[in-house]
Amino acid sequence: MDLSQRTGHSRSSNLSRKHTIASPTYLTGKTAVVTGASKGIGRAIALSLAQRGADVVVNYLSSAQAAEEVVQSIGSDRAVAVKADVSDQSACTELVRAAVDRFQKIDILVLNAGLLAGDNSLENSSLEDFDRLFRVNEASPYIPAGGRVLFFSSSLTALSSVTPGYLLYAATKGAVEQMSRVLAKELAPRGVTVNTIFSGTNKHRDLFCGQDRCDGESHQPIESEWPHWYAGRGCVGSLVDKW
Q1: Lowest-pLDDT range, 25-29, 49-53, 82-86, 212-216?
Q2: Any catalytic annotation for residue 230?
Q3: What does the alpha-carbon distance between residue 87 and residue 228 come to, in Å, rounded to a whole number?
Q4: Rounded distance between C-alpha atoms, residue 150 and residue 111, angstroms
Q5: What is the pLDDT of residues 161-213, one digit of tens each?
Q6: pTM, two decimal places
Q7: Among residues 152, 209, 212, 218, which one has the least CA distance to residue 180?
Q8: Domain range summary for the chain, segments of one domain joined by +
Q9: Which CATH superfamily is domain 3-241 in?
């Protein structure tokens, strides 16, 4: 399905129209902040942006070593790792300040950080669970402002992908979709492009960290839902090329 149909955004947005790259370093001089960039999709996007010339702020919460590995892969002259809990407004302010202090501006904001943890079925969901997931998955993308904004939703919000046990996660990602639709229109007069990506599952070691364990067995429930298990990798280059 066309991205503009899913999000309600105009077909004229830069992300949904064809874009021909004149140079492999066409993002030179641009600064990108990628939340949750120490692993998974965030890591792949951070590296892809850097390959195309952008300076990158690698945000992480707990994986300092993994974040530094991303920085070293890019080059310490063009990347910096910044620890920040994106559900905390003051931490987000510090993240933005660190980016501006290092690179003077923010051109691209990739709001990738999210939380998928525990059994979120109705009977096993507490108010504390809801508050935690909502702050990370829905509230955190709203806190920073400016630049080209990219939200991440989930295939779990599609009717065909509804899966028992993901009540809170799917609900918060649904909120992200609606926020993105509103912001796309609200920020358009200022020349800010807002889009939402509906990614499939990205298989990495820490996919289920936050549950009782972080091991290969944790993937089995999702593998049973999607027999043709495939980690989302190939789409990252195409996504970044739209900038």
Answers
A1: 212-216
A2: no
A3: 33
A4: 6
A5: 566 666 666 777 777 787 778 778 877 777 778 888 766 655 554 444 444 44
A6: 0.60
A7: 152
A8: 3-241
A9: NAD(P)-binding Rossmann-like Domain (3.40.50.720)
- Determine if residue 188 is left, alpha or beta; phi over 0 gives left, psi from -120 to 50 gives alpha, anything else beta: alpha
Is 63 a known active-site residue?
no
Q: Which two tokens stand for residue 190?
A: 């200022």
What CA–CA distance (Å, rounded) separates 4 from 15? 9
Dihedral, 48, 44, 167, 198 alpha carbons, nearest 10: 30
153 belongs to the catalytic site: yes
More confident residue, 58 or 176: 58
Residue type present at position 15 = L
Catalytic pick from 87, 140, 153, 180? 153
169 given a catalytic annotation: yes
What would the pLDDT profile of 64-97 be if each residue is shown by its tens digit? 999 999 999 999 999 999 999 877 778 888 888 8
Q: Choose, from 30, 39, 48, 173, the residue flagged as catalytic.
A: 173
